[in-house]
Amino acid sequence: MFTPIDKETLPRREHFDYYRTFLPCGYSVTVRLDMTNFHAMTRAQGLKLYPSLIWCVSHTLLSHPACRMGVDGDGNPGCHDVLHPNYTVFHEDDHTFSDLWTEHDEDFAAFYRSFLSDVETYGSNHGIKAKPGQPANFYCISSAPWLDFTGYSAAVSGDRLPALFPVITCGKIVAENGRETMAFAWNISHAAADGWHTAAFLKDLQDLLDTVTLHL
Asked: Which of 10, 39, 167, 196 has the least CB density, counted as fewest CB within 10 Å?
């Protein structure tokens, strides 16, 4: 569901208009998530890391309205009640990737099964969009497990506006000094979120990764 926002009551109404029309821009932040506890938990539970992490990101987004913003046909802001993950799968045969999406479900086991089913059904399809019917309320998340990086930026050229929804890229898990960390790049429109919103989301995500136990 998309709920319109009355800009007169939006604390960031001037910021939204400024960064949406006068100075359209987004920003990128790369942090290192501590994956030690979460990675150990997924191994102990026999879970695949990628869908488990995607569920955690989608779940955390539910508590952060600024990260679920969108616009209607007239460009007026609103908030989606949920964002569904649009994620990438890699093709070993030609080293390309394709987008898939899976509807978010707060029941982890239901989401996990749907994810595996979507990958089995559509994962071998080549091309940018491997699964049809992508909803309007989605966000992007991808993985580059071969690469450890310290910075990342996703630029939009021409006259296109930066997407209001988050665009996330995960890197390689690296072990050092008894801990496991992973680069996590977060890109979002400045019209939707400031640094405070990003920091709050990242803190909640890290707290979840440190403490959650997922079950099928």
From this structure: 196
